[in-house]
């Protein structure tokens, strides 16, 4: 399979400022982001006592707010000045930073989020190494990436991605950074056939657009049904990993 053209060794592919603002405008109501916040909330309940957290690639801070709402002392990091400004405007502690060189002390954080970050970084192993570095021994990393190069389309190019991941690829990147993977699972399994058809029939389709309310609720219902089915090992659209830094 032919891989997409990359921006150069170690390069971080920027996400457009307009795209960041678009996410901020829709994420409170959009089914995709509601499902994402639900996953974060369930993982936080599993961890238990809140501590120090960092949200790498925080964009407008939607996921950082979830951390704060659950009692975590959270810091947002993003490589886009516009994203940092949006976080600061919401009262979120935020810093401008590259995922490969986090402006944070080592062994400090109990939790690191990196949701849809690694696929934008040419040197994703360096970014994973930074996540491991800033975690305390026993700290948890929650990572999400787009799943499977078979779904590669103009949509990925438009979002500045340089790859999609197979399960073994993501596990290898995290374990190569010194993290131990506890669990890998797929999301949006039931919607994969629709996503594949939609993305390959057009040069670019905007998944993040403001969908009609009825469609938005229907897609959210599909996600709720999926959570009750034993399909997390099946190919999906998004791949999640939970890993930890050994003590």
TrEMBL record:
Q: Is Nucleus among this UniProt entry's keywords?
A: no
Q: Which GO terms describe its biological process?
A: methylation
Q: Which CDD domains match?
A: AdoMet_MTases
- Give the residue spans that cross the bilayer: none
Keyword set for this entry? Methyltransferase, Transferase
Entries under Pfam families matching the protein: Methyltransf_11
GO MF annotation terms: methyltransferase activity
Where's the Methyltransferase type domain? Answer: 54-142
Q: What is this protein called?
A: Class I SAM-dependent methyltransferase
């Amino acid at each position: 399979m032919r891989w997409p053209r990359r921006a150069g060794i170690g390069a971080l592919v920027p996400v457009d400022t307009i795209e960041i603002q678009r996410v901020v405008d829709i994420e409170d109501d959009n089914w995709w982001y509601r499902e994402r916040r639900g996953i974060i909330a369930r993982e936080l309940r599993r961890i238990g006592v809140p501590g120090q957290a960092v949200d790498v690639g925080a964009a407008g801070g939607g996921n950082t707010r979830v951390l704060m709402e659950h009692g975590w002392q959270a810091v947002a990091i993003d490589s886009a000045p516009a994203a940092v400004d949006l976080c600061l405007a919401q009262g979120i502690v935020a810093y401008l930073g590259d995922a490969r060189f986090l402006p944070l002390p080592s062994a400090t954080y109990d939790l690191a989020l990196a949701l849809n970050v690694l696929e934008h970084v040419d040197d994703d192993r360096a970014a994973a190494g930074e996540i491991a570095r800033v975690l305390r021994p026993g700290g948890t990393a929650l990572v999400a990436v787009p799943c499977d190069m078979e779904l590669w389309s103009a949509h990925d190019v438009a979002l500045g991605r340089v790859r999609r991941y197979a399960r073994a690829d993501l596990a290898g990147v995290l374990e190569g950074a010194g993290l131990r993977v506890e669990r890998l699972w797929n999301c949006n399994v039931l919607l994969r056939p629709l996503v594949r058809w939609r993305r390959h029939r057009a040069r670019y389709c905007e998944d993040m657009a403001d969908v009609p309310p009825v469609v938005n609720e229907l897609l959210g219902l599909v996600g709720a049904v999926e959570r009750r089915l034993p399909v997390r090992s099946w190919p999906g659209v998004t791949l999640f990993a939970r890993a930890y830094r050994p003590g």
